[in-house]
Amino acid sequence: MTDGTGALLTGIRRGEQRAGPGPSLRGGTRPLAVLAVVFTLAQLALVRPVLGLGWDEIVYTSQVTSHHPAAFFSAPRSRGVSLLVAPVASWSDSTALLRVYLALLSGLALHLALRSWRGLFPTRVLVTAGAFFASLWITLFYGPQAMPNYWVAVGALTAVGCFLRHRADPSSGGPLWGVAAGAALMAWMRPTDAVWATVPLLVLVLAGRHWRSLLALAGGLLAGAVPWVVEAYTAFGGLRERLAEASRIQGGLGLNIAVDDQLRSLGGRALCRPCAVPMPHPVVTLWWFVLPLLAVLGLIVAVRARRTLRTVVPLACATTVALPYLFMIEYAAPRFLQPAYALLAIPVADALWYLVTAPRGKWRPTARTLVALGLAGHLTVQLTVLVGTVDRNVDSRRDWARMADDLHRLGVRPPCLITGHEAIPIGYYTGCSSGATAGNNENTTAAEILRTADRVPVATLTGPGGTPPGYARSWPAHRIGDLEARIAPAPGSG
């Protein structure tokens, strides 16, 4: 006899089989392909391929390029992004080419992720879900960038969709490959996020003893995480040591309420650490509060339609993958919640279609008008924030390029070493190695820097209001923008 959790899952599954996908759920894939093309073109038009590489992008890209020294690779990072960009970055230093490559790849990935949900929801719901996720300024901004979070999002969307398709038709083994591929992609990019995102799936397969699903899910997670685990032993002294170091760099994982920090970051801040900035205008953050309300409405609609599981599972996965970024770290970045947004998009889209189709009589035009106005306002806010974010980042990255030109004129040319304030990005743009004697990117010592200065040009950068390190105080000082650059005497000058 089945009891407890098993009885609940059996009841849900039987109810969903009785109300299984019919012909209306099996629309073509052309609308999804059109959406992916529009998403790709929007990235190229709005984010623009001329946007230079950002700090984190530099760390990931420099690991595989032959044109720049590799930047310090800290414990929380994974090599997935580096391998993703390797087909272009390994032979070309063109940022524009890399942006185009990533935009095309991200559009294709969104298309495949949404296709994994075919048969579970009508095509119109999937197109709306994809359009909602793709129209977020966060998605458009990070789609063509060498960053991991978008790829965790599409991996989660693929894994959950294929998992539910296999539950609906256990005789079909094809979706299990999608489960494994989605889990591997997540773990390849960010192993810890992959675990959080799949906790509800693991609970379901263990409670129901679905061993084939467990094998696909666990196999995908392990396959994606192997490089990270191997590196933990080869470079950090072991898995426990790497996890501890990653926790230290992230400020120590524990009970830390970061909900307000996430709200502050919605105004276009790539990283909010520390997040002592004003809250954006309420119009900018309104969608963030409407999102969970629509998700709950989507769940209510699903329960009434007797297809609860296919809605509650993405909601549960979205919740678990968001938990550490809302309640366990002391800072925020809007990209951290991309996997949650992608998973919430499905029930949110279902709720929106319910709002425009369910009301009868005179209420239907009113509901449709309100939804249309809300979506138009939402899109306006997202594009406004995106344009401002892109402009700020274009300017800041051009500043790094100008500083690199100034350092070249001062004789700091490859091979060389940059230390101090923003050493990683400025070192990359200068073509130099970067070093730090303290902080999260500590990778050298003062004595090693002085020995390096006997061989190659070395510059130490000090930010506004800062003081130069002791080993560089006697070096000649030069003003470069808002920074002070102290350049070691030329090697061999005595």
TrEMBL record:
KW Iron-sulfur (keyword) present: no
Protein known as: Integral membrane protein
Entry annotated with the keyword Membrane: yes
Superkingdom of origin organism: Bacteria
Signal sequence, start to end: none
Residue intervals passing through the bilayer: 96-114, 121-142, 194-211, 218-236, 286-305, 312-333, 339-358, 370-390
UniProt organism field: Streptomyces atrovirens
UniProt keyword list: Membrane, Transmembrane, Transmembrane helix
